[in-house]
Amino acid sequence: MAPQEIQHHDxxxxxxxxxxSELVSALKEELGSDAGLDSDxxxxxxxLSVMEAYKSNATDWHKYALxxxxxxxxxxxxxxxxxxxx
Length: 86
Hints:
By secondary structure, this protein is mainly alpha-helical. The chain has helices spanning 20-31, 44-53, 58-61. It is built from three helices and no strands. GO terms for molecular function: cysteine dioxygenase activity; ferrous iron binding.
């Protein structure tokens, strides 16, 4: 699969998600229930567009900001996506 040329938010008619939950819903809609970012039918530019349109708000994601000082970084689950958690 050839890499796609990156396009940005203003090149799509993408409504800006107003909250983290709207962002998660919009990403689920773009990805579908069985796909990952490497699936052929996923338009990575549209996924990027949705993410760029979201204006981060700390109150949205504060409950997910869990720190583990014993690790250099942590990944905190916001949504189980298409069930491929792992």
